[in-house]
Structure prediction request, 148 residues.
Amino acid sequence: MADDFAALIPELPKWNDGAGIEPQAWIECVGNYELATGYSLLFWPRFLEFEGYFLRDGFSVQSLRGFEEVTKGDRAAVERVMNQVPIASIHCNVEPTEPQLRYLGRTLKQIWHVKLRHDFPNIPFRVEFNDEPGLIADEYELTFWQTE
Prediction:
C-alpha cells in the first residue's frame, strides 16, 4: 500500500493554486542543505562499539553506568534504553500526527536495521519500533540491541 503523502504532509495539496505538488518537488522548494545535512544523522546514524555495547554516537557514559546499575548488568536492557529515540522528540515545539510518527518510525526502523548490518555485519541486532495505533506521541519509540 502506498503512503498517502498528502495526509502525511498536509501542505502538499495547497501548492500550485490547489493543484498540489509531489513530495520530492516540495522538498526542493522548501528544504535546505543545513536541514538535509542534519537529517543525515537521523537517517544514516552513527553507531559505535563501547565496552562491548553497541550504541548511538553521542551517548553519555554517566547514563550508561546508571543504567548498568539499575538493570543489574543486563546488557540488552542497557542497550535498549540507551538507544531509545522517541520519534516525537525529533522536533521540539511541533505537534506530529500519529500517521507521521508511525511512518517515520517504520522508515527509521528499516534504515537502522540496514545501517547496523552495514556497520557490524557479524553482530545480530534487534531493531524495534512500537507501531501500534492509538499510543500517546511519546510512546512511539525506536530502539535496538544485540541479541547474542
